[in-house]
Design goal:
The protein has 8 helices and 44 strands. By secondary structure, the protein is mainly beta. It is globular. The N terminus is likely disordered.
């Protein structure tokens, strides 16, 4: 049966004027109260202000019931608290000690019957649903960002853009997924005094406005789907101080936080929804989400950390009413702790402070261990154990690890309790290849290179990998050679040098050209890595063999004859050293660049080999088509990882004008998800996963289209390599 067109229509049959009135909190439809919220045709769901002069009915509205519509829940919530810049925050917000909003999140998610009792009724079915089961969540960490958006008013689109930009810059941890590829990260944003948040035509902390809201950002641009909540200042002087609860300031902060948290957990993808149906999860079309049904009905629970916390009651289908939760401390107060890393991202070698804090009971001994260290690198913590509340130092040496992003995990263990903190390690192109310095130019400079000639600089757009690349020559005419060179020693296990280049040459090779040479200083020979050429090309890879232990000088050159009408320049990037068998060709993967068509790959569905718009070379795989196709289209290959290889890397570029409910791209390795089901139209994006030398793997690249006439989905795949 054909589905209806996917216009984002309101959930109830209301006029545009009525919808705007609802968003502004003014006129309401007959029979509705200001505490009842609707899914507006936006990407958020708001908690309305409560008129403090209106009594709070401690019961659910008659007929309230949450219906499951097939969308995702957040069954293993990991809270990342984000402070929106500096300001006069309430100390319970800016602190991660006890009591604080941080300790509230930890207690609420792991030390109450919220998970063990209440949430189990909202597990999702495997048939017709996402097959998720709620388990305890955790408070992960707190970060203070420096937003690019200034001023006293901030809109929701600016908030979404800011979170995404902070993730991309490594200032916030990347959104994580569980083993089934379901998103788990919840960014809880707290704002200082003096900032008004707007969403649509509604504003924070004013009559008819909202106390908070939660939303969803779809995966894309290299990040997974993630969830976020927006919390205005609620201190004295703010409208939210009187319209968002009847407890203390801290109590109201916690109450509102629980409202948004519980709604996000049971209806995670509401921000992607339009009409009633997927990807909504648990929703009442009349009364809203589980928090809306019981808006402003507050209770308290005794935390296992000895503190009393205020929270909002939530609606239970099983009991057909607003229900309370209770402590779940395992028969007594059990010691517990939190662990965090600062900074939580490193580029190359560096260090991070691993801090711990007591979240329950008394301070015990926390033993620390490190995992996820890439081959060729090293990492250690000192000291290896601390008393909860103390800190240790993680020291990382990039060593000879190959370029790529890695996740280093520090695990803290106290008795039978474990918590983890993660540090994203980025080894830029060539930076971990053993002996090449700044091969990806991610220092934003030519450090490590000797430049000679007419014009040598660093570009920050159109690069092959990362943010920066070298630009030799200029968009204006230059006279003669522009060159950079570096002398290095090939490390143990080195087999080849790899260089990516992109030339703009509107002249002929008689006058202008690009050139790369590799001089073996030990043997006294010189090899040509890139022969003199005058072309205007896409990013192209060139390689040359290396002998371990030999000294080499690599020289990259772009030549222009200073003629006014045809300036020539060349971008160079990701100068890396390959180790182990296979050189730059990816070892055990056959035809990973699809330059030999589909040779080596098993195909299913509608597939072809594209010859334009590819990531590297002249060919790439296309799964799906520009016309509608029905179901999965895939390329798969089984391979054995050769010695010296520890990572598989794949590039993909998807065109998906639909939603992930119907169309998607996904990449799996031995059934483990590398790219969760994602519907996005993105630029070329790289994804990596760890592999073990000598082991066999099956890599499957899949694009799914639902055969709907208006929005065919297809995906390009390229450069599947082993590093």
């Amino acid at each position: 049966m054909k589905r209806a067109p996917k216009a984002r229509i309101p959930l109830l049959a209301l006029s545009t004027a009525a919808l705007l009135a609802l968003a502004c909190g003014s006129a309401l439809p007959p029979g509705a109260s200001n505490d009842q919220a609707l899914v507006q045709p936006t990407r958020v769901h708001k908690m309305p202000m409560h008129d403090s002069s209106t009594p709070i009915p401690y019961s659910a509205p008659a007929g309230a019931h949450l219906t499951y519509y097939g969308g995702r829940v957040n069954a293993n919530t990991q809270v990342v608290q984000v402070l929106w810049g500096t300001g006069s925050y309430d100390t319970h917000i800016s602190s991660t000690g006890t009591p604080s909003v941080a300790s509230f999140y930890q207690q609420f998610l792991s030390k109450t019957t919220l998970i063990s009792g209440y949430m189990q009724q909202y597990n999702t079915p495997a048939s017709g649903g996402t097959g998720q089961t709620f388990t305890s969540g955790a408070f992960s960490n707190q970060f203070t960002i420096t937003p690019s958006t200034g001023g006293s008013t901030v809109g929701d689109s600016a908030i979404q853009n800011e979170i995404t930009a902070q993730i991309a810059a490594g200032h916030l941890p990347a959104p994580a997924t569980d083993a089934q590829g379901n998103a788990v990260t919840y960014y809880a944003l707290f704002f200082p005094p003096g900032i008004t948040i707007t969403q649509g035509t509604s504003s924070s902390c004013v009559a008819g406005g909202f106390c908070a809201y939660h939303g969803t950002v779809a995966s894309g641009g290299g990040h997974n789907e993630y969830y976020y909540g927006v919390h205005p200042d609620m201190q004295a002087g703010s409208g939210c101080a009187t319209g968002c609860g009847n407890s203390t300031t801290f109590g109201n902060y916690c109450s509102v936080a629980s409202h948004e948290l519980a709604e996000m957990m049971t209806d995670a993808e509401v921000g992607l929804a339009g009409p009633i149906g997927p990807p909504l999860a648990w929703y009442d079309s009349t009364n809203g989400e589980n928090g809306d049904i019981c808006n402003a009905q507050q209770g308290t629970f005794a935390g296992c950390d000895g503190q009393s916390y205020t929270y909002q009651l939530e609606f239970s289908n099983a009991q057909n009413n607003c229900v309370s939760i209770s402590p779940s401390c395992g028969g007594g107060t059990t010691n517990d702790f939190s662990i965090a890393a600062s900074p939580n991202s490193l580029t190359g070698s560096g260090s991070s402070t691993i801090s711990t804090a007591v979240t329950a009971g008394t301070a015990g001994t926390v033993s620390l261990s490190v995992s996820g260290v890439p081959s060729g690198a090293s990492a250690s913590v000192s000291p290896t154990s601390v008393t909860a509340g103390g800190s240790s130092t993680l020291t990382v040496n990039a060593g000879s690890a190959v370029a790529g992003p890695y996740t280093i995990t520090v695990t803290g263990t106290e008795g039978t309790t474990t918590h983890t903190a993660t540090v994203t390690l980025t080894i830029s192109g060539g930076g971990g290849g053993g002996s090449i310095t700044n091969g990806g130019f991610e220092t934003g400079s030519l450090s490590g290179w000797t430049s000679t000639g007419a014009s040598e600089s660093v570009a920050n757009s159109g690069c092959h990998g990362g943010t920066y690349c070298a630009r030799l020559g200029s968009t204006a005419p230059t006279n003669g050679d522009s060159s950079i060179a570096q002398t290095f020693t090939a490390p143990t296990g080195a087999t080849g040098l790899s260089v990516w280049y992109k030339e703009t040459c509107p002249d002929t090779v008689t006058y202008d050209w690009a050139l790369a040479t590799l001089k073996d200083n030990t043997a006294g020979t010189t090899a040509t890595v890139i022969a003199k050429a005058c072309i205007t090309n896409a990013w192209t890879n060139a390689t040359s063999p290396l002998t371990a232990g030999h000294s080499y000088t690599v020289t990259l050159t772009s030549h222009d004859d200073n003629y006014t009408g045809d300036p020539t320049y060349t971008l160079f990037d990701d100068v890396t050293i390959s180790t182990g068998g296979g050189g730059g060709g990816g070892g055990g993967i056959t035809n990973g660049g699809f330059e030999s068509g589909a040779t080596g790959w098993t195909t299913a569905g509608t597939n072809s080999i594209a010859t334009s718009g590819c990531h590297g070379g002249t060919h790439c795989a296309q799964a799906g088509s520009t016309s509608p196709t029905n179901g999965d289209s895939s390329f798969s290959q089984t391979f054995t990882v050769p010695a010296g290889k520890s990572q598989v890397s794949v590039w993909y570029k998807s065109t998906c004008p639909d939603s992930v409910t119907y169309d998607w791209v996904t990449i799996t390795l031995n059934g483990t998800v590398m790219v969760p089901k994602t519907c996005t139209t993105n630029a070329w994006t790289n994804i990596t996963a760890a592999v073990t030398a000598g082991s066999s793997y099956t890599l499957t690249l899949t694009s799914h289209d639902d055969n709907y006439a208006g929005d065919p989905t297809y995906t390009l795949f390229d450069d599947a390599t082993l590093n």
